[in-house]
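#lab-general

N.A. 3:47 PM
ok so I finally got the sequence cleaned up, no stray characters, all 240 residues accounted for. can someone with queue access submit it? mine expired

B.Y. 3:52 PM
send it over

N.A. 3:53 PM
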Amino acid sequence: MMMRPKQFYVASWALVLIALSFPLQVMVLYGHHWSEWGAVFNKFTFLNWLVIGSLLLGAYFYYQASRAIVLIAPVLLVLVAVNNYLVGQFAGDFSLLQTSLGTIGCGLLFAPLALPSSVLVLKDPRRRWWLRSKRLHKRVPATLNPFVGDMIQSHTFDVSQTGAFICLQDLQSVLPKVGDTVRVSFNVSTMKKIRCEAVVVRISEAKGHYPRGIGLRFTEIHKAHERSFENLLHSSETLQ
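B.Y. 4:20 PM
back already:
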C-alpha cells in the first residue's frame, strides 16, 4: 500500500469542517452577512477559539498520521465536551441533547485510530509509505561493501533521495541481513564515485517488474559527494 490510508483523509477534513462550522453557526443564528467577520468573531469566547485551534491542530496531525494525534485526541474531546455542555446548558441556541450528540459525533472521528492500518502507521512512522521520495529508474553501477560478508558488484534498479534498490544475480547467495549497515559506491564514471552508507531494509526475490535485489535506505552521504548525488538524481541519462 503506497497511499495514505483513507481514514486519515476523511477524519482530518471532518475536523476542519467542524472548525469552520463555528463562524457559520454564528452567521446563521444571528443573521450576520458573510462580510461581517468582525461581528462574527466578536461573539467567540476564549473557549471557542481554543476548540477551533485544537480542531485544526488535530486535523493537521491526523492528516500527517502523526503519533501526536493520539495525545491531542483526548484533550480535544474534553474541550469539545465542555464547550458543547456550556452551549447546551446555558446558551439556549441548542439543546443539551443536540450538543451531546455533537460531542459523540466528534468522538467517533477518532475511532479509526483503532484500525489495524492506523495502528501500524502510528506505531512506526517509517511506514508512512506516501512520504517516500520519488523513485527514479536508473541503472547505475554500484558496489556494496558489507561490514561482514563479501563485496557485491551490481547496479541499481531505481534510486531516490533516501535510498536505492540494487539488483542481485541469482548466484549471489551470501547476502547482508535486513538491518545490516553497508558501504555503497555508485560508479558515475571511471574517475568519479559517489560514496555513502546505508542500511538494508529489505531483500526480495523477483516480483512483477522488480528483479531480485536488495533495498537500501541511506543513512549518510559523504559531504564531498552530496552535489554529485543531486546531479545524479536530476540527470535524465541512464548510466551503463
